[in-house]
Amino acid sequence: MDAAPLVVTSKGRVRGFRRGGTAVFLGIPFAQAPVKALRFAAPVAVDPWEGERDATAYGATAQRGDTGITLIPEPSVPGESTLNVNVFAPFEATPDTALPVLVWIHGGGFVSGSPASRWYDGDAFARDGVVTVVVSYRLGFDGFGHIERAPANRGLRDQIAALEWVRDEIRAFGGDPARVTVAGQSAGGGSVLALLASPAASGLFAGAMALSPALGAVAAPAARRFAERLATLAGVRPDREGLAALPEELLLDLQRQAQKPERRFSRAGLTALLDDGLPLGPVVDGDLLPRSPLDALAGGASAGIPLVVGATDDEFTMLTARARGVLALAPVPLVLAAVGLGRSRRRAYLARSRRRGGAARLGGYLSDRVIRSVVLRAARARAGGPDGAATWVYRFAWPSPSIGFSCHCLDVPFWFDHLDAEGVSAIAGDAPPRDLAAQLHGAAVAFVRHGDPGWPAWDATARRARVFGAPASTATVDPDAYLDVAPLV
């Protein structure tokens, strides 16, 4: 029986375990535990250790408690050392192998999510000669809340610190620090766009994949207002000293209370969500994130970095489908007008909509406004940049037989070629198509290896996108794959 894999990093030795042809290392710290004096600080490098560090169990997660049933099973792991990485490498890899590297950032709306999910394990990537690193970062108010006399964007700083760890340590696991692709889904995809826009992340990755990107670009005034609301609920000052006095559990509860006005399914609440985005996430602070990611991309930020960006066809339609009985009574044009879509844009949008039925159209609008329009805006921004950065756009069109739509998160186990992971059948049915997983995973491997996923790049004239999982009668490369959301952009 082969011995457990042992790797020597600059901080000390780590011992993982073998799973088939994969060397697995879990919970390796890339920064000190963000507690006590470091709670609202920028990440601080971990101190060296003596002996062997056990890396056979997932590390502590920033997500706390039982989150209930979620689309992706992402368990919470208690503990203080929440800034850690999981590494998956071919078992035979050595420091001289110099394999391409995929760095994965999980989603969760910047307030939840966990790297301790089997959906994110990189066994299939290791099988195909790619080293995978799954990173953690601080969430919610601890990670992204505005706090006077504390550095902004602490969660984004954590992601950058994790990428710096990859730059400094990945060679020991068989990876090449010059061939790193950063990828993420939902809030992770939004994080990828923010990293492309951040000067501090320059040089830390050579490729990027933003899957169903939930755009993280909270305006500084909005971040301050949210912090003031939370501090008022707590009866403390909105500064580092006042908020540090709050126990973690209380701060999480206050965070949920402060978010409630943003989550009401009302005209004002929905309009605020659509116009202002998520209340917590990367903040346009003029420093780490000098301007919104889309503005930065249009200005040429990370122009030399190839990007894959796309979304599922019906990210959030399942939410309105649950209320189809009530929504059937609401005229779609009237609802769209109520949330601020002007007459001419409303008419153009409805004329191009692929969806039928009030609930599907309203859920489709939510999907298009929050996620799919970001895909089109990112592609347009990069195509209009000074250097015409290479961008590949895709659509994931396969509808889940158990949910009925090509919903949010459905594509993740296909990208990872991990259809046997726990919980996949709940979202993808009992027999998800393995050939579709081979297509998506193969495209990801090709992009990580060569910087090209295997279909024509997007440009402002042709507007081509790869369509995964569409009916056989539909072309696999659509020249106007996102034409239906154009009126929203």
From TrEMBL:
Catalytic activity, EC: 3.1.1.-
InterPro entries attached to this UniProt entry: AB_hydrolase_fold (IPR029058), CarbesteraseB (IPR002018), Carboxylesterase_B_AS (IPR019826), Type-B_Carboxylest/Lipase (IPR050309)
Domain of life: Bacteria
Entries under Gene3D superfamilies matching the protein: alpha/beta hydrolase (3.40.50.1820)
Domain Carboxylesterase type B positions: 4-321
Transmembrane region(s): none
Record keywords: Hydrolase
PANTHER family: CARBOXYLESTERASE
Family: Belongs to the type-B carboxylesterase/lipase family.
Descriptive protein name: Carboxylic ester hydrolase
